[in-house]
Amino acid sequence: MVQSDRGSLHGYAVKAAPPPNWGLASQGALTVSDQNQVIVFYDERMLAHEPDIEVPFLPGRMDTRIRSLLSGLGVPWKYPEHPARLTAIRHLLEQEPVSGMRFETGMAATREQLARVHTLSYLDRIFRLRGQNVWLDVDTTAVSPGSIQAAEVAAGTAIAAVEAVFKGQTESSFALVRPPGHHAEPVRARGFCLFNNVAVAAAHARAVLGCERVMIVDWDAHHGNGTQDIFWADPDVLFFDIHRAAPFYPGTGSLEEVGDGLGDGTNVNVPLPADAGDAAYLKAFREILVPAAQWFRPDLILVSAGFDPHSHDLALNVTYDGFAAMTGILQALAREQCGGRLVFVLEGGYNLISLSRGVRSVLKVLAGEVPPEPGRRGIAEVEAAATFHRAAFVEPGVPEEPDNNDQVRHRE
Ligand SMILES: [Zn+2]
């Protein structure tokens, strides 16, 4: 248990001098030529979640309102959270395998496992929708006949990924799941999410696997309102969420939302402007996330990994190198704090190319590749080209000035 200085987290995070280049410096030392095993969990039952936007809304009174909202968009609206999200990732990883990675099948979560973070009345309401085609909420969440089992398998697969690292089968793992989870609240399905997969996994680690403290890092473009809600007053779950600021969906995640009661100080939000990218994400990781984790001392680090902050997707400007560098920092942190136990759970990501390539960039780092510093790709080539071309632009016969002159130094 972290006892005394919980309230100091935010003061520390803001005031403390950042450890210079903490993450990358450490991970470089830790991953030298290591070939790690990484287990990727995948289960075809999650492909049966195929909401149809033409079906009626529940409750019926919402139907008219939603129809008018959708018709006002001006373009046909399709359900963006569809099965091809998972099959695109699977396909890429089969075509371009990551050395050290292997697939395993997931499992369905039990009612008891889900009830650690959702109310029984909510679960009963969801379970009654088996076999139906309906909308659940004004908030973009619908189900098809296979959706309830898909959601049970998504949550159970996140648990399987956590169990694999605690059994020592792998240092780190990645649960490729859908429907996603981080918008799902204890009593409400929201934003394509039915059950909060990462929260179910965190609760399982604490209830069954002997974890006292769990850190959840959410780098999806959207704020993880459901995860924040579930652990709002819980001092043993540190929730760090970096996202595009309100009014972007779901509109929560302000700096001032820091938790409450015993959990005061263990909820850390970093809202960003729409065009923020790698530099902002990495600065937040190094200067806020790392000291927060060192203060909290987690037994496990979970990642709500959405790939919609990629520049090809909905918001923000993170690159593949950015995802890789963040993974490197988390890997180093997990090795320092909790024996390397690091589990990724898929959240959003709707551009199939950046989604699948983003997942692959994470897996390569988990498997042992040292990530490049974002923004440095091509710089070595430009330096070589500059050296190659430099002499062409010097007037013949002009005397060379030796002081502070790179051109002269290169030609020498
Ligand atoms: Zn998202």
Task: Describe the secondary-structure layout.
Elements: H1 9-15, H2 22-30, E1 38-42, H3 62-71, H4 84-95, E2 101-105, H5 111-114, H6 120-127, E3 134-137, E4 141-143, H7 147-166, E5 172-175, H8 197-207, E6 214-218, H9 225-230, E7 237-244, E8 267-272, H10 278-296, E9 300-305, H11 320-338, E10 342-346, H12 352-366, H13 379-390, H14 406-411
Parallel strand pairs: 1-2, 1-5, 5-10, 6-7, 6-9, 7-8, 9-10
Antiparallel strand pairs: 3-4
The structure holds zinc ion.
Structural class: alpha/beta
Percentage beta strand = 5-15%
Strand order of the largest sheet: 2-1-5-10-9-6-7-8
Helix content class: 25-40%
What number of domains?
2
SSE order: HHEHHEHHEEHEHEHEEHEHEHHH
Query: Any idea what the radius of gyration is?
Result: 23 Å
Give a short account of the largest sheet.
8 strands, parallel
Rounded mean pLDDT score: 86
Report the total helices.
Answer: 14
E-strand count: 10
- What is the CATH C-level name of the largest domain? Alpha Beta
Second-tier CATH architecture of the largest domain: 3-Layer(aba) Sandwich
Q: Could you name the CATH homologous superfamily of the largest domain?
A: Histone deacetylase domain
**Global outline:** globular
**Which fold name corresponds to the CATH topology of the largest domain?**
Arginase, Chain A
Low-confidence residue ranges: 1-33, 407-412
